[in-house]
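The following record pairs a protein chain with its ligand, zinc ion.
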Amino acid sequence: MDTIHITMPDGAVREVPLGTTAAEIAQQISPRLAKEALVARIAPTRSAGGAVPHAVGTAAAPDAAPEAKLTSSNGEGFLVDLRAPIDQDVKLSILTPKDPEAIQVLRHSAAHLLAAAVLELFPNVKLGIGPPIDTGFFYDFVRDEPFTPEDLARIEKKMRELAAQDIPNERKMLPKPEALELYRKWDQGFKCELVEERAIEPMVSFYTTGKFIDFCRGPHIPSTGRIRAFKLMSVAGAYWKGQEGNPQMQRIYGACFYTQQELDEYLHRIEEAKRRDHRRLGAELDLFSVQEEAGPGLIFWHPKGGLVRKLMEDWLRDELLRRGYDLVYTPHIMRLELWKTSGHDNFYRENMFGPVEVEKDDYQLKPMNCPGHILIYKSRLRSYRELPVRLAELGTVYRYERSGVLHGLLRVRGFTQDDAHIFCMPEQIELEIEACIDFAFAVMKTFGFSQYVVELSDWDAKHPENYAGSAADWARSTAALQTTLTRLNIPFKRMEGEAAFYGPKIDVKLIDAIGRPWQLTTVQFDFNLPGRFGLEYVGEDGARHQPLMVHRALWGSVERFFGILIEHYAGAFPVWLAPVQAEVLPLSEKFADYAKKVTAALKDAGFRAHLDDRNEKLQAKIRDAQMQKIPYMLIVGGKEAEAGTVSVRHQSKGDLGPRPLAEFLSDLRKQADSRAI
Ligand SMILES: [Zn+2]
Ligand SMILES: [Zn+2]
């Protein structure tokens, strides 16, 4: 009998009959593994026999249905069904819920379960595609009537029924003509089209789940019983093959996780995200607006938002000066020629507003601040003694973004970058990078973030022709970024080949209060612009040299960072940033005088206080102040007036009891000055 050799992850080699399946091997290892196994990863070892591996168990056949993106994500081998017979020597891993790769297989199988359930309830639907996505799956259908929320509830119920029946997901191979005939008879035109286009081998791979049959490369989990923690989320419109003009389909989205707890946590995060949506809070708290009359993606900062912005900017400008930056201002519109020199007119054109003609000369609204800072650097000859030159600007730029992708403060057409450019000598880069990182961490701490992810993006060293700068430039700068992160004990992920063409960079992503990452700080070398603009400095040797240039932004933009802050704090800013820090609430009109005195004392001490002297019940006033997320409410009546106290109520901590006014003031002073979070 023919045997094959299976190398397990621990290096142990098993000799088994040809055609043994991963499920059988799992069973041999332990019944528990067999029960937990979802899918297998195999990589041919090619050692014995020297045979060129054809598809193992045919599962590697590239008859990719569009949904099949399941080659192993770690690049080693590919995923196959547990029931696929193994027909050559391979390295084998049996994947369980512990393996991150297996979840996408579960989700893909959940998509099939969805289609199977829809077909039971709506036998005449036409099927599109159904891939796994980040948090679950979707499937596209054509149906004359829209799917209603009630339909979704019925479909989900049917999915649970089918899951409980533990129906096997079975793989079948059909000759292509038979496959086409099958779908033609079934009147599934989209599937015919897929088979026609994508099946490049004579045999076509199908999966059945009960009555449902799908053109699909797989792999899938063995049966439906493992799909437990899922929920149908929504229906959205989609075009067949994602192309406008193609038939419209209804896309049903579902969330799917291994456990109910993971699903519940995900659903909770979605609810939290809705509650924190900066667009809704921006209107409720009267912070900012986008005005249709003025155009999409352009932000109007209302008085309260404007006040928060001033506080943010004041902190930033003070820090910039303290850290040796110079503040500059550059024009919003400059000759188009400048953008030709910089190269933006070429490689960045599609993100730029169109040029404007003035006196037969073309001008360009700026999408970047860099060329402006370069012109300041170049305005006179620089000596090595002046370096590093650090030019900072809260620089407003305009970029063309398609209206479909605009999103509140997060994706806009006009925004103000907290931009800076550092021009320095090669021997200075490590200190400069360290200072940038230190500054970035000061931003995080000051604005109340404690978690972050750092990525270092390097070039693809195999293709130096795609990049500006020499190999020496790249090596030196990447090493500076890397040693700085290592020295500062900052964990980071190295992203080979992810750098822009002009230089390596460090990106810092913040993790917000509900665990979402936000790309924020970027520190980026530029080996392109100094050459294009002929930048120089006179070195110690009296000769001219080209300085290194670093772009860096900490918040990214004021708008975006403000949006992130609103969501992070759910609108309840800490005392130092709150547009109103304390709201004074007299118990009744009788105490108006004392309430005015308290308000005046707060204002005299430099606080942002407001007196609610409306003729409303106290409860209503408290509710409104609470809605406005004002940190402190000071309730004053007869007792307080007599004793010179205020009854303090905190936005989240509730009633804190009466305090002498002077004591409250000094406490508030401490909180504001220390920028307590
Ligand atoms: Zn599939
Ligand atoms: Zn720049």
